[in-house]
Specification:
Layout lengths: L1 H13 L1 H22 L14 H5 L2
Helix pairs in contact: 1-2
Length: 58
């Protein structure tokens, strides 16, 4: 609800092209951050050291 008001305000002040370019940059930034921070592999553990019950649990 708040983001739509901000996006609408940006559209009015910066224009269509600039507003959507900035919104796209924000989305790609969060996507790139998520790729690195939400990975399954933990750097400190090897696959053999993981608990098999937790790996196979769904």
């Amino acid at each position: 609800m708040f983001f739509s008001a901000i996006a609408g305000s940006m559209y009015d002040t910066a224009g269509f092209k600039s507003a959507y370019f900035l919104l796209g940059l924000i989305a790609i930034t969060f996507t790139i951050i998520s790729i690195f921070t939400l990975s399954n592999d933990k750097k400190g553990k090897k696959k053999e050291q993981r608990d098999p019950e937790l790996v196979n649990a769904v």
